[in-house]
UniProtKB/TrEMBL annotation:
Signal peptide: none annotated. Belongs to the bacterial ribosomal protein bL28 family. GO terms for cellular component: ribonucleoprotein complex; ribosome. This is Large ribosomal subunit protein bL28. Keywords: Ribonucleoprotein, Ribosomal protein. It comes from Wenyingzhuangia fucanilytica. It comes from the Bacteria. One of its GO terms (biological process) is translation. InterPro entries: Ribosomal_bL28, Ribosomal_bL28/bL31-like_sf, Ribosomal_bL28_bact-type, Ribosomal_bL28_sf. GO terms for molecular function: structural constituent of ribosome. HAMAP family: Ribosomal_bL28. The gene is rpmB.
């Protein structure tokens, strides 16, 4: 499965490990993703989303229906 948030589109970034001697080697900064189930009362069904913890905070603040609506407008969520 891909390491991309389904609501915000966050994905892994590339950077460097920097040693004390300032040697640089490539590394990846992965997004902080979790898999979570949500109940949508308007559609009377459960959906499973892979999302970042930042998206989860947005859901707690705005509600699942509002966040899904925004994601569909931006083109991230296809479900």
């Amino acid at each position: 499965m891909s390491k991309v948030c389904e609501l915000t589109g966050k994905k892994a970034m590339v950077g460097n490990n920097v040693s004390h001697a300032l040697n640089r080697t490539k590394r990846k900064f992965n997004a902080n993703l979790i898999t979570k189930r949500f109940y949508i009362p308007e559609e009377d069904k459960w959906i499973t989303l892979k999302l970042s913890t930042a998206a989860l905070k947005n859901i707690n603040k705005k509600g699942i229906s509002a966040v899904i609506k925004e994601a569909k407008e931006k083109g991230f969520l296809v479900k």
